[in-house]
Amino acid sequence: MERHAVIVAGFGFRAEATLASLQDALASAQHGQVQVTRLATPRDKAPLVERLAEAMDLLLIAIDPDALRVAQTATKSAFSLKIRQTGSVAEACALAAAGPGARLLTPRHISHDRMATCAIAEGSA
What we know:
- With 125 residues, the protein is α/β, with parallel strands linked by helices.
- It has 5 helices and 5 strands; from the N terminus they run E-H-E-H-E-H-H-H-E-E.
- It has a single domain, classed as 2-Layer Sandwich (Nucleotidyltransferase, domain 5), CATH 3.30.420.
- The chain has helices spanning 19-30, 46-56, 65-70, 78-84, 89-98, and strands at 6-13, 38-42, 59-63, 103-110, 116-123.
- The longest helix is centred in the first third of the chain and has 12 residues, at 19-30.
């Protein structure tokens, strides 16, 4: 089976986040240069990101909690470590969805309202 390069934007966010929060975090992580091909977020947070995925006509990958725990993240948030057992939910989602051997293109970026984070990874999922 042939594998193709994928660029995944992973998201972590608070319950109060809005679609605008996600869009802002994504824009910050992309630096206007990276073109994502998929979005990813924890399975229990998928409904809000699904709205963004539909608007962007991209596939959304819902990540299981176990996959978050094993991802090696570049940043470490005490809150994420406590709640999700990972240093960065956004980074862990991006890496998990991008597949084995994935690498971060951008570490997590925080939306201006501080409600959402986004990180981008490249892989061959």
